[in-house]
Automatic annotation (TrEMBL), chains A, B:
Pfam families: NDH2_C, Pyr_redox_2. It comes from Aliiglaciecola lipolytica E3. Residues 351-409 form the External alternative NADH-ubiquinone oxidoreductase-like C-terminal domain. SUPFAM superfamilies: FAD/NAD(P)-binding domain. Keywords: FAD, Flavoprotein, NAD, Oxidoreductase, Transit peptide. InterPro entries: FAD/NAD-bd_sf, FAD/NAD-binding_dom, NDH-2, NDH2-like_C. Residues 10-325 form the FAD/NAD(P)-binding domain. Belongs to the NADH dehydrogenase family. Its EC number is 1.6.5.9. The keyword Signal does not apply. The keyword NAD applies. This is NADH:ubiquinone reductase (non-electrogenic). It catalyses: a quinone + NADH + H(+) = a quinol + NAD(+).
Length: 429, 429
């Protein structure tokens, strides 16, 4: 049992998302010890989380124990714990247990969470999608709604149970709306006796002027049309002004529904508060061009928690490749420092492209030099995502799930777990 | 959307376990309508539940939506609801929502649950294993214990976190003890830096004189020896007299542990109470030799909820094949009745054998005419269980999980979900 060697340079990494994992993967130095802290025991492949929420994949297909990923790295110790503060002067991370961990270098990669833009009272009604628990909760909610609708004798209630509202027209919103529509219109069609699941209403509500604002306008238009073909009502320029137990309000009108999914707002983790550092409008720590917190060359912030500008003045987007590139860059910076090599050039984000799926057979891809849409894009999307999963086991498992889903319309994870006895105004029978 | 046809004979089935599902599978008659009620939306393959608890399989690999199983049976409607009472005279089933469902024939297949023999206050400390939620809770508990032990500085606490006590030496107890020992001694060995997982203590505590009492004595002895080789301490004639937040008491002594798994007592569902019918010591409804509730020829009870005697005077065991045979038998009884054919012979349980695994490469099988043990028995066990899973998709998925587990010692479902911040006297760090 190796104990912490105090003579070695000790790097503490907070967060085992894409940024934290890639940092550790790239930092290998014999005089370094790494402590990787995360609230959870697993690394989560967040781009596929919506497929857990829609019963296509099982949680364990897109999550891996952090310590298993680094089982062969004796220089890495894993700690499942919650960080509550950072002491920049004494160089220590403070945990919720009261314990402190001293560092020589600190890498913060704590990601982002959802925000209701100050309306936290909407949270119980508008479910968000950031963790595996969120995903299984949404899955249970969707499946339970159909179970209740099957035996509801009140047409108005039945209608509300069969109405799904996705708030937010970004990639997650588009993907979850598409997959709910296909679940209702295809997968579940033969399963019910008193319910026409093809009459299920799915609405995608976006406050801005178009869906997928990070894509070129032509792909946004294509996406809207494709979603409409799947039977989804797409509403743009429609900010939501209320969510409660009976439904959602937008454009001054109330729509009755028990199924609201929140894919609208993202805010950074509280790293800026821990650091007492300057932050931008989304709560992200403003770092210099070396991903350093100004005046603290031993503290780095990467991924969704960092506010970094590109050469054209726009923000580096909060997506997995940006976090991974940040992780790799900081690993090189620290490596160079330890080897007393000259300092690296400033961080430059290399945008590889944007991806989004629309249901189970279409996708849009914008690689800058080329734009793809339709079935071919969808195949590329699948292959790319399989490639980025961890390990042969997961790749095989996800590939089989997708083949089954695509060929037979079958979704293997349609199980309701957790409290199924919730009421929320909707009575069964 | 077909509505309930009041002219047809209406059979209500309560419970979508092995008995209920097999009943519906065997009852096909054009003048019959079936309503299948279950609290949950899924049929669960309970014999493999311990593998979910020990992170080898994912929940969705052993559970299937009930309505999906009968999607091509227009005569079957599925209802996810909780039954709270039965009115035998007016022939109706009463649901927790207050709604009633009238029946012409009633088949009760509500199974069994665990019992703490009157000590329900042990429940928070001694986790039982009957549902998918139970399994993921036990899985999180086991994995969290290792996470906490890794960073515990108190040797006594560390020891208690690394001590697992399984109460009950039946098949479930033996299987879960074996799989925890292998998890600790093999799967997790390389994952920790400050913890020697091979020092994990696993105890199997049985009140009676031997483990696997339903097997011949020679196989019980073999099982005990095999468990001991896996590093498990097997204690027989040791009734547990207390379970609390600090450990377990047996043989007048207290053992400190935070990880107690309860595989000891089984009691029937409250069907006898609903029916106001005579029940045996385990709460099972006493039925006649046609699986009928005396004086109510339209009410049948099958599986773990029924008390049925074999020709030698002993009870039909509470295992899946007995429930399935009961389901098939009652389907034939009702079929004959509807076709005005002569009444069947009394139900005769055909015992096919007992199975239990010991870790990931040994098993014991008692088929009566032949007894098997060791690696061959284990292969047979695997093949039999794969065969009984529902659908090619699940068979493929479970087979892959087992190959990976067996070949690489890898368990894909080692994710902690749910509330990981529970304290229970064990502080991390």
């Amino acid at each position: 049992m190796s104990q912490l060697n105090l003579k070695k340079h000790h790097i503490v990494v907070i967060g085992a998302g894409f940024g934290g994992i890639d940092f550790v993967n790239h930092l290998k130095h014999r005089d370094v010890q790494i402590t990787l802290i995360d609230k959870r025991n697993h690394h989560l492949f967040q781009p596929l989380l919506y497929q857990v929420a829609s019963a296509s994949l099982a949680p364990s297909e897109i999550a891996w124990p952090v310590r298993h990923l680094f089982r062969n790295r004796k220089d890495v110790r894993t700690l499942m714990a919650e960080v509550v503060d950072i002491d920049k002067v004494l160089r220590k991370v403070i945990l919720s247990s009261g314990d402190c961990i001293l560092y020589d270098s600190l890498v913060i990669a704590t990601g982002a969470t959802h925000t209701y833009f100050g309306n936290d009272n909407w949270a119980p009604y508008a479910l968000s999608l950031k963790t595996l628990e969120d995903a299984t909760k949404i899955r249970s909610k969707i499946l339970t709604a159909f179970e209740k609708a099957e035996h509801s004798k009140d047409d108005k209630l039945k209608d509300a149970l069969q109405t799904f509202v996705v708030v937010g027209g970004g990639a997650t919103g588009v993907e979850i709306a598409g997959t709910i529509a296909e679940l209702a219109h295809n997968t579940l069609k033969k399963d019910f006796r008193f319910l026409d699941t093809t009459k299920t209403k799915v609405l995608l509500i976006e406050a801005g002027p178009r869906v997928l604002p990070m894509f070129p306008e032509s792909l946004s238009r294509y996406t809207t049309k494709s979603l409409e073909k799947l039977g989804i009502k797409v509403l743009t320029n429609s900010p939501v002004t209320n969510c409660d137990s009976e439904g959602v309000v937008f454009n001054g009108e109330r729509l009755m529904t028990f199924n609201i999914i929140w894919a609208a707002g993202v805010k950074a983790s509280p790293a800026a508060v821990w650091l007492g550092a300057e932050s931008d409008w989304a709560g992200r720590v403003i770092v210099d061009s070396y991903l350093n917190v100004p005046s603290f060359p031993e503290i780095f912030v990467i991924g969704d928690t960092a506010s970094v500008k590109m050469s054209d003045g726009s923000d580096v987007p909060g997506i997995a490749p940006a976090a991974k590139q940040g992780g790799e860059y900081v690993a090189n910076v620290i490596n160079n420092k330890l080897k007393k090599k000259p300092h690296l050039k400033p961080f430059k984000y290399n945008h590889q492209g944007n991806f989004a799926t629309i249901g189970r057979s279409l996708a849009v891809i914008d690689l800058g030099f080329i734009k793809l849409r339709g079935g071919v894009a969808w195949w590329i999307w699948k292959l790319v995502h399989i490639y980025f999963l961890v390990g042969i086991r997961s790749r095989l498992s996800v590939a089989i799930s997708w083949v089954w889903n695509h060929t037979f319309g079958y979704r293997s994870s349609r199980i309701i777990v957790g409290d199924t006895q919730e009421k929320e105004g909707a009575e069964s029978n």
